[in-house]
Amino acid sequence: MYAIVSIAGQQFKVAKDQHLFVHRLQGDEGASIEFDEVLLAEDGGKFKIGAPTIEGAKVTAKIVSHLKGDKVIVFKKKRRKGYKKKNGHRQLFTKIQITGITL
Q1: Which of 6, 74, 78, 92 would be 24's cystine partner, CB 3.0–4.6 Å?
Q2: What pTM, to 2 d.p., does this model score?
Q3: Which residue segment(s) compose the domain that 38 sits in?
Q4: Which HAMAP family did the record assign (predicted)?
């Protein structure tokens, strides 16, 4: 059984006991959260497709930890002008574990 769910503006294919890294979510570590924007669900070869979402379907997850991603360096330069700009960025992520899919 799997489902395609919208989490923080992005779509993910999720299954039970799967770990995901999503954009930072509100909540403490160990807290349980529910996502009700289920777009598609598959159960034993039978598909349910939402228009745009499936009514009554939910995906429950547990927040495992909050962390930062790898550093991305942004470097801008204009040749012969002496202009250089170096910036770094680390995206904030939340690691979640899918605990169940209900239809």
Answers
A1: 92
A2: 0.83
A3: 2-102
A4: Ribosomal_bL21
